Amino acid sequence: MALKYPKCASAQVDLLAGKDVFPVGCVLKDGKLSPAFNAVDTFHATVKKLVCLRQSNSASGSLAYSSDGKVYRGDNLDATVLTQIETMTASLPFFIEQKSGTSNDLVLLGNTNYVRMRNGGYYKGELASSLRCGTIRCGRLFGIDRSNAYLFKWSGPGGYTDWESGISGAGQAYLEEYGGQSWEIFSLDDELVILREYGITRISAAGDPENFRLDGDTIPIPSFYRKTAALAGDGLYFCADGGLYRYKGGKVSKMEGLVTDDAATPMLSASYGGRYYLAAGISSRLSRRVVYIYDTVDKTYQVVDIPAICLSSDNRSMIGFAADTAYRIQNTGEYSFSCGEFDFGSHSRKLLTSLEADCDEGVEVSISNGRFTRTVTAGGKTRLNMRGVSFSVTVSGSGEVRSLKLNAEVRK
Fold first, then answer.
1. Residue 15, class by beta-carbon neighbours within 10 Å (0-12 exposed, 13-18 middle, 19+ buried)?
2. CATH 2.60.120 fits domain 8-35+337-411
3. Are 320 and 326 contacting, i.e. CB atoms less than 8 angstroms apart?
4. Distance (Å, whole) CA 249 – CA 329
5. Potential cystine with 335: which of 25, 162, 246, 394 (Cβ 3.0-4.6 Å)?
6. Given the DSSP bridges, would you call strands 8-14 and 106-109 parallel, antiparallel or unpaired?
7. Are the CB atoms for 91 and 68 separated by under 8 Å?
């Protein structure tokens, strides 16, 4: 009696086209994988609970701010010693402005007070008008009253210390209640954009204060996550229920992709070099803290695998702060990411026959069937001869990957 062999069919999966591709330390665009941003040059953060850090071009070096409102100075960003110089009472600074030039003028504004650095000296004062958030535009401070989330205020032409009312001086206006409480305010193009609990209110910022006016109705948005808004590249990006959104020119657009699909409990954001950075409470895929990066020019996403609770740029790169360690985020040329799990559309056992790769040198592919893992150097066609029901694949290296496909024989 002749033996009957099970009938099999050839199958192939494109490892770079799967919905489970998770680009950690790399970027996937137009079906090609390239090295991108990762965390390097870690250094110990001697001040716990840092929430912001800014590099200065003067002898005062770096300025750091902790969650208890204290302000510290260091000789440089990677300093191991930071000395406390001031305390922001009532709140952390909601606005930071640094002016270039010989004066090296730097200002921190909080709910009720300010700290100012000029020519290496530090000055502290009380704000005449208490604000919960604010921004400076054309020399004036615009913000939302600390005790009334519907009261919009602006200072006189003298800046944040000038609150003398008048036709061309300080003033205020009440916002409609639709949209909820106001949380953050930004200056974008010819508008002041106020992000609220579930709406965006726009105020025309052209001309003198007497010409300020509400610019149309409040735009409805899903429930807004505080501290996730940042100006980056072509608009104002923020997180709300449902994912990542962009505001530009009176319109709100939902951004499909990694942040919308994976970020759980977004924490805070920052921007640098045309990129939007988001520290998420938890990545749904990795079940731990990560930093997401959205490039507003290339329209690509990537992930940096660090447990950041604070983000800040020093005009060289973005810095991610963990509980007691700081990470510089930059292009390292190294990556390691998961392609997901594949069963070739069948729950039966199958034979992996080969891996086909078009890539630069320095790319390794690890394939696991749940019992053991095999790692091969990618390039051309590599024989595998590996059996299992489903397979998980991880790619690591430093070279560009233009194509990566897995071949198998699957029982019919």
1. buried
2. yes
3. yes
4. 31
5. 25
6. unpaired
7. no
H helix or E strand, kind and range, residue 259: helix 258-262
Which amino acid appears at position 18 of this protein? Answer: G
pLDDT-derived band at 44, boundaries 50, 70, 90: low
User: Phi and psi dihedrals of 259, rounded to 5?
Assistant: -65, -45
**Structural contact between residues 49 and 70, judged by C-beta atoms closer than 8 angstroms:** no
The string of pLDDT tens digits covering residues 127-150 is 888 888 888 888 888 999 988 999
pLDDT of 41 above 80: no
Q: What tokens appear for 220 in the block?
A: 């409805």
Contacts of 82 (CB under 8 A, 6+ apart): 46, 47, 62, 64, 72, 73, 74
Residue bearing tokens 């960003």: 77
Bridge partners, residue 173, by sequence: 152
What is the CATH number that goes with domain 37-333? 2.130.10.10
The one-letter amino acid at 50: L
Is the CA virtual torsion 161, 163, 164, 170 positive or negative?
positive
CA distance 341 to 343: 7
Residue 207 phi, psi dihedral angles, 5° rounding: 90, -165
Helix (H, G, I), strand (E, B) or coil at 40: strand
Task: For residue 256, give both structure tokens.
Answer: 């499909």
Indicate if the alpha-carbon torsion angle 23, 232, 74, 124 is positive or negative.
Answer: negative
What is the CA 220 to chain-centroid distance, rounded?
23
DSSP per-residue string spanning 26-37: EEEETTEEEE-E
Spell out the domain ranges in the chain.
Answer: 8-35+337-411, 37-333
User: pTM for this structure?
Assistant: 0.85
Residue 38: pLDDT over 50: yes
User: Which token pair is 98?
Assistant: 């640094």
